[in-house]
Each structure stands twice: as structure tokens, then as C-alpha cells.
Amino acid sequence: MALTAPTARVFVPGDAAAVSVGADEVAAAFEAAGAQVVRNGSRGMLWLEPLVELDTDAGRVGCGNVTPADVAAVLAGEKTGIGVVDEHPWLTSQQRVSFARVGVVDPTSITDYEAHGGWAGLRRALSLAPAEVVEEVTASGLRGRGGAGFPAGIKWKTVLETSSDLKFVACNFDEGDSGTFADRMIVEGDPFSLVEGMTIAAHAVGAREGYVYVRSEYPHAVAALRRAVDASYTHGYLGHDVLGSGLAFDLHVRVGAGAYICGEESSMLESLEGRRGEVRAKPPIPAIQGLWGRPTAVNNVLTLCAVPMILSDTVDGSPGWQRYADLGTGRSRGTQVFQLAGNVKQGGIVELPFGVSLGELVEGYGGGTLSGRPVRVAQVGGPLGAYVPASGFDVPMDYEALAESGAMLGHGGIVVFDETVDMARMARFAMEFCSIESCGKCTPCRVGSTRGVETIDRIIAGQDVAANLVLLEDLCETLTNGSLCAMGGLTPMPVQSAIRHFPEDFEPQDIKQSGAPV
Amino acid sequence: MTTASTTDRAALVRAIATQHAADRGPLLPVLHELMEELGHIARDDVETVADVLNLSVAEVHGVVSFYHDFRTEPSAAHTVALCRGEACQSVGAQALYDGTRARVDRLGADVEVAEVFCLGNCALGPSGTLDGRLHGRLSAERLDALTEAWR
Description:
The complex is a heterodimer of chains A (518) and B (151). Chain A is an alpha/beta fold and 518 residues long.
């Protein structure tokens, strides 16, 4: 295939996942071979990483799982790849709205961002009154992508209508749930979209300062975001007079310190203020009394990254908010960025309108397990989400349908397990995780989680199993009802769903072993 | 530790804290910078930070002890942090973690094996960091190869 330039241009993802399987070494090898290397984000086809793309007349042609030894063959067009990446069915069957630019653009280039539709939403938003911006976000049906699914427009309206000399916007980028990585990938691959979304939010609610709280486990994302914030200041998208509109907005990037609980919004606010990440009682809600007691719009990364598209220009007579609202099902509007993780053959990012079935994601996009054994169960929505058995995979993935089936969408992470998983062990782990990460404020969570580990240990050891299962149910009820936040309140969800769907795993060992094979 | 180096350390801690003192909520950024510059946060550092930021020693100590990232003792020469999150467990992370802890001496003389819950690399597990660098698809064999230079 003919190259478009005398010097070959290759895209080697700088995304942390790609780097974790050797992308830096591959990029260095291409540079040594004289190629022009662009470190793009990841396309989200993570099983192919490092997925190198070679710029050709036909488009960007992809080669998966490239090693430094493959570099010469890739440049010569001799390595068999996956064809033009933009035409790959795994991508073309998706509806990439939030992830439209991720993997495509150079995340360090502010001009590349603009060339791919960036800043259009901000420019239009600045021409509207704050209340009009809030109205459009409300009309789009956008709901918080952090897990709770609260309508973003209603939250913003509260902040806008609460009078204060100082207001804040805060972005919750403490993506601590196992099985989730969408926030990380969008910030590493398209960091300006978060800057743009937050600046629009600042205009909408009347904030002059913004804080992004990033977990310390994400150093690549911290670097990408800081670079994007600096460039945005330089080009006038942040600062004392954003794009000459009179809007003053300063954006700060703050790094967490390894506490899962700080993903809970009130703990995050405590942490930003420089305290122990202990949960606050609500009310007051952060929209009225948030950071330093001032009205604060707290939103997840994906929520804020969806905002520029919602505020974007009218296309074919349809405004951005309308095009967003046209996607999805029922009260779950727009797209959801699903993350396929764990024991899955084709893990990565699948962005689709709400309503796709769990089975289509796990067996269709995911291609089943990596180990090749049958899928037994998937945990949906992070460590506090339910275990859904393979027999329940027909459930549509939207907020309401999942809630009805006793599960939750959370941040959209799906962790796949094969038939070798021991669900009593996973239930025990849920309690152990809670005992390690509890902030300690509520006794049921702080003490109950440790008692939960001990009780499940006795069940696993076959001691008084029936009585201990009753005790465990009772303990779960206490955690659910007696905790201020979702950490204690939802830890019972994985535990109880494991018991409900896989009672055989909680039977005494000798019965388990003599019974039918699992 | 000599008196001179103690004084140097105190001066450095004071300078770092002073640099952030005018920011909103300066404590976490200060503690992160101390970790980066000094590797751990000692009792004396806590007192200095409290003094500069006009906080009580108890408040600063409470924050240092709350967060996993802040350590009060120097770390080992090398650190392996392995993910024990559900996604990594589904591909054998628990056995890798238990096995690595059991044979930590094989990785080198001064090596610490720590647990971490999610590095955001959940489709390419088991994941871990070696001296802060992220690695996916880890196995006992790969760990041995990657830590060869430590021995």
C-alpha cells in the first residue's frame, strides 16, 4: 500500500493500557526506524494493544499486538493487520459520541481538537444565557455517569439558582471501580473535551473556579490533563476572560491519595478541602453547600465530556441536545460507555445507546471469555454492583431495567468471570474490600464489613452454614439501612446477589465436592 | 541523622508547605510533594506542615494516616504493587499476589510487595506496577523477567 508521505506516519497509542503491554518500546522502535510517531489515545480495542495504525492513502490501517520486532514489517505494509481501523465492524457497529475523538486525534494538540469539532459547544454556550445552557442540558436528558444517574440539568439548575459570591464546579475523576477505565481513557485520549465541558458548566452555573479530582493511580491521565489545561490557558479557553466573553474560569487539577471512598462525592469534597475523605451527611446537598460550603456542581468525567456535544451547533435542523435525547431508551437518554473487563476475549470500550443487552456486550462484543471456558457470571457496575448470572444476560442495559432486576449500572463497567470462579470467595472479597476502604464514619460499614468477612469465612469452612447465612443476610440488611453512603449501603449487593444466584457455592465443602460439577 | 540534615529536612518541608499555603485546600498537594521529595512523611514533618498551614498536628496526622499513598516510613528499594480488584481476580490475580508475596525474596533483596485496588487496566489483567510503572498481562514468569535487574 502506498504511503501518503515520504516519511511514514504511524499512530502508537500513549494510553496507559497500551503502555502496560509495551507501546512505549514500540513507539521508540518506530522513531528509531525514521517514522513520524503520533501518540494517540486508544481506540478501545484493548485486546489488540499495542494497536499501531499506519497512515495510508486508503486510511489508517491497523496492526494489533505489535512488538518492536514487527516494526520493519509494519512500515513495509507486510504485517497482516485488521485493515482500515475506522471500517472495523467492532467500531462501526458502535455509536461513538463521547469517544468520537478518542484514539483518532493527537491528545496533545489543541488544534487537532478544534479540527475535530472541539470548542464548538463552548463557543455556542457562551452566546447563550446560563439558564438557557442549563435548559438544553436538562432537555438532553443527560444523567450523571458516575453511578447515581441523577439528571445533570436539575443539579446545575440548583447551583445556578443558589446565590453565592463564589461557586465551584468539581469533576469527580476518582474512577476507582474495578472494571472501569472509561474516564481514564477519555482524559488520556481527548483531554480537551473535559476542559470544554467544565468551562461550559462554569458558565452555566456561575462558577469561577473548577477542580478536577484525579486518582493517584492514573499518572498518565494526570499528565495528559495538566498538559491540556496549560494549553487551554495559553489559547484563551481558560483564564480571566474565556474567548473574550467576560467569563473568568480557573481550572485546577488535584490528585487523590489512594482512597477508594474519595469517589463518593462528599468524601471527594472533604479530600479536596484537605481533610480525611470521610463521607458527609446529606442534606445539605453539594449543589447548595459543597466545596468550602459554597454551591458546587459535582459531575463525573463522562457527564462533563458529553456536554460539549449537547451544546454543539444544529445539524440538519436538529440541535445538539435533541440529537443526544434521540438516543437511548425510556428515561436513560444518550449513549453509555460500557467497559468490558476481566476474563473477556475482546475487552475494551463499547459505546452504544442505552438498552443493549448484557449478553450482546459480553458474548457479542466481548467474544466470551479469554480463557475459552463458558461465562458463568458478570459483575456489573463495579465492586458495589450485582453479580448477574449468565442466565440473566438478556437484561437491557439501562438504569431502570437493571434496577428492576436487582442490579445497577454504576459507571458502566462489566467484569466477566468464567466457570472456575468461586462466588463465596467473591462475596468474601466484597466484604474485605469494604473493610479496607471504608472511611470509618458509619459503624455498620466499618465494623460490619469485618464481621461479614468472618461470617463468610465460617460459611466457607462449613461451620453452621444455615445459621451463618441467616446472620449474613441480617448483617447485609444492617449495612444497607445503616450507612450514609453507597460504600456500606451497596456492599451487600454483590454479596447477596452471589448468594441468591449461586447458593451451591455457599454449601459446605464436602457437599460441594460430592455434588454435580460446577 | 545529624542535626544539620534534620535542619535541612525541616527547611525543605517548610519551604514546600509555604509554597502551597495560599492555595485553597493545600494539605494534599503539600503531602504529595513531600512524598515525591522525601519518600515518606515523618512525625517531625507533620509538625512542620501543621505549623505552616495553621492546622493542628492531629489534623495533619489524621490525613496522613487516612490515605494509602502517604507512608510514614521509607519504602524498600523496589516496589511491586499488584492489583487485587475483581477484574484482575477473574484472570488469576489472587494466586499471583499470594505467590509473589510467598517468594518475594526471589525478586531481590530489598523488595516490597503491595496490594492495590484497580489501576484502570481491567481488560489486560492481571495488572500491577513495578517501581511505579504500569504493566498488564502479568504472570509469575513475566514478573521474574521484569525484575531480573533487581537481583
